[in-house]
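>> received
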Amino acid sequence: MKIYQQPLQLQQRKRGFHIITSELVQAFPQLAAIKTGMLQVFIQHTSASLTINENADPTVRMDFEMYFNKAVPENDPEYLHDDEGSDDMPAHLKAAMLGNSVMIPIRNGRLALGTWQGVYLCEHRNDGGPRNLLLTAWGE
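>> returned
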């Protein structure tokens, strides 16, 4: 079994849902050495998250942002954690809903995503800054 690990820092992005699949592949050439395995992508932050979803129609990502803003509104007077701004506590809640990692099968040195699937960075802050990921792949 081969095991590889690679940190990746993503540039700052505006709030929203961003496809990062090609950045993952480009930053992790060791994937090509794995015929059958798994890739875990882990985000080292509590106010951004990761998910896998539609990679073709950008309106899907716009609808994600609209839905999460409705489901977890800013400026709720009942939030106790508000030292970092009105988007901070909602960002933590959204990140908890979506999660901090995704697992993707590797097949013949490539990510075995479906035809219409891509990995999203879900940026829940207005000014979240660069985001750090840890990529870990293993397999034969």
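>> Helices lie at 21-27, 58-71, 88-98.
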